[in-house]
Amino acid sequence: MLPIKPIYKAGRTRKDGTNLIFIQYCLNSDKRILLNTEIALPVKYWNKKTLRISESLPSSYGNSTDLNNQIKNLIRKTEDLVELGINLKIENLIMFLKEHFDVSTDFQSIKLKIQSAIKETEIHDPRKNLDLYFQIDNYILSKSGKVTPGMLRIYRNMKDHLLAFEQYRQKKITFDSFNLDFYESFIDYLSFNYIQRRRKEVIYGLKINTIGKTVKQLRIFLRNRMRKKIIPQIDLTDFKITEEAVDAIYLTWDEISKIYKVNLSRFPHLIDYRNMFVLGCLTGLRFSDFSTIKLTDVRNGMLHKKQGKSDGWVVIPLRKEAQNLFNNEFKKQIPLLTSPEFNRHIKTIGKLAGVNDSIEFSYKKGHKDIKVTKPKYSWITSHTCRRSFCTNEFLAGTPVELIMKISGHKSVKDFYKYIRITPEEAGNKIKELWMQRGDMEVLNK
């Protein structure tokens, strides 16, 4: 009737005529386990009533008193292990005993080993390890394969900014750190004291939009952990996202045409980059999307593409030039090009095509207004393709809702931030609309 007791397995006689003694633990009538004591003797020296070894045991099998004490100690060890398992709320006590019962090791050593194993498990358990950076890494891992590599890089930048701030203020950042004082100090640090990495010269501070992007991703991460009930609720009302209007170029159809027609016979290695850039301007896709177009994506003159960032499908009619690029230049096989190389070479192509108007942009860093003037080709990036497509379609009168179906913008407000037209172009667009409506004269009607 005892849940823990020594038993002699008479039906398991070994070649030398002995049988092993086990410690039996019964969790219930259906679940039990036998733990090997490694003590063996002939059946006649085991007393079934007292559950002890007879004193008449020959010395060749060992000293009966010592062996009985050894069995008593193993029973006590089993009891301690069961109690430990219950205190740790182990669901499967049978498996727990099987994994940790050890004849040759004392209970304290076994206990320390179990606690160490549990601690190691908890280190990797997002429900128990509340270290901020472990949680960020877990969050990034959960997003892998679901977002673009560029987004994963933004998450890692957010983590790096927090680590740099922690080192700067010499105080560990925990989930309890996030309050208004932290936010204000963090913004000040990123604005004035953060040292930009991988720069030949020391540059302090980040652009306002870069700081805003870090705060935005930090808020999204914290809310994710709150929704999962990993951390308690944190008031993020004061965690404002700083931003300013982005100065970015777009290329007109005339400028894109110059790039399309530029003679690259002396620079054949640039041809694929040029063709890819023009294809991007004609489709409005991100680099990660137009650089991975497959033969099966093009059907009946339409491009069917699942966008990596928004995870939504778009269907884009292919202009004649786009079909020519895909079918004839690329032979229906898009070349493998990297984004950094693409961004570097397209500037050279823009220069060769004569896209060299002087363009001045400005941005804030801390309290300073920074102005930069460069030729227009120096501002061209892979993102120029997408911005050019949206702006040119907008100027051509394509309904904003249709353009957004391709651009992936969720709100009209965000879309209009994306459009880049000069005041002259805006004036001409209004004039064109007035002429279409016959509103050039309104006072004499």
**What is the first-to-last residue Cα distance?**
108 Å
* Beta-strand residue fraction: 5-15%
CA radius of gyration: 36 Å
Largest beta sheet: strand ordering: 1-2-3
Notes on the protein architecture:
The chain has 445 residues and is of the alpha+beta class. It folds into three domains: 120 residues, no CATH class; 96 residues, no CATH class; 185 residues, hpI Integrase, Chain A (Orthogonal Bundle), CATH 1.10.443.10. The chain has 16 helices and ten strands. It has a three-stranded antiparallel β-sheet. Strands 6-7-8 form a three-stranded antiparallel β-sheet, with no helix packed on it. A two-stranded antiparallel sheet has the order 4-5. The protein is elongated. The N and C termini lie far apart (108 Å).
Task: Give me some keywords for this one.
three-stranded antiparallel β-sheet; 445 residues; alpha+beta; single chain; hpI Integrase, Chain A; 47% helix; 3 domains
Brief account:
The chain is an alpha+beta fold and 445 residues long. The chain has 16 helices and 10 strands. The chain has 3 domains: 4-123, no CATH class; 132-227, no CATH class; 253-437, Intergrase catalytic core (hpI Integrase, Chain A, Orthogonal Bundle), CATH 1.10.443.10.
